[in-house]
Structures are given as structure tokens and as C-alpha cells.
């Protein structure tokens, strides 16, 4: 079984899904994410595979959006904080 996530912030969603699906006793579970944020959380889940890691930035593009904007960008970009604060 493979769980795919676009971006991992805290890892809570991925941990919840992995725990939920583990109860069904699959032969194996692998996790993959496009982006893994390095937030320094001590109890975070680490994906088995990820595209790249980054700091705590608000990113858009390739399906990631802010208020339904920027989703269709053909690249991943970092929004300036004044855009969303």
C-alpha cells in the first residue's frame, strides 16, 4: 500500500492515515510526499520517499494553492508573507 501526500507540514494527517490503514494489516505501507517541510518537530512522521525538503514557507503551484489562486503554476513558488498575512 502506498500513501501519497502533496506536502507534509506537521505530519499529523499522514500519521493518522498510516495508523488507520495499519489496522487493516496490509503487507506493507510506504509513504511518499512531493514536499516535506523541516519544522523541527520531535514527534513528526518522516515519509519513506519525498521529492524535496524545505523550511517553513507557504508554497503554491503544481496543485498547491492559496485561496484558489496559483494552483496552475507550472512550478512551485514561495509566497511572500504579506500575501497571506
Overview features:
two-stranded antiparallel ribbon; 3-stranded parallel β-sheet; alpha/beta; 29% strand; 2 helices; single chain
Q: How far is the N terminus from the C terminus?
A: 38 Å
- Using DSSP, what is the number of strands? 5
H/E topology pattern: EHEEEEH
Query: Could you list the spans in which at least 5 consecutive residues all have pLDDT below 50?
Result: none
Mean pLDDT level: 91
Q: Estimate the strand proportion.
A: 25-35%
Radius of gyration, Cα only, in angstroms? 14 Å
Strand order of the largest sheet: 1-2-3
Number of helices: 2
C-alpha geometry: elongated
Instruction: Determine the structural class based on helices, strands and strand pairing.
Output: alpha/beta
Main beta sheet = 3 strands, parallel
Residue share in helix = 10-25%
Notes on the protein architecture:
With 85 residues, this protein is α/β, with parallel strands linked by helices. It is 18% helix and 29% strand. Helix 1 links the parallel strand 1 (2-8) and strand 2 (30-37). The chain starts with a strand and ends with a helix.
Amino acid at each position: 500500500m502506498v500513501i501519497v501526500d502533496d506536502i507534509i507540514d506537521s505530519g499529523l494527517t499522514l500519521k493518522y492515515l498510516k495508523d488507520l490503514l495499519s489496522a487493516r494489516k496490509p503487507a506493507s505501507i510506504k509513504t511518499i510526499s512531493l514536499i516535506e517541510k523541516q519544522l523541527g518537530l520531535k514527534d513528526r512522521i518522516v515519509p519513506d520517499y519525498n521529492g524535496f525538503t524545505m523550511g517553513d514557507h507557504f508554497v503554491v503551484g503544481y496543485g498547491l494553492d492559496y485561496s484558489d489562486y496559483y494552483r496552475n503554476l507550472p512550478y512551485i513558488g514561495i509566497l511572500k508573507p504579506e500575501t497571506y498575512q
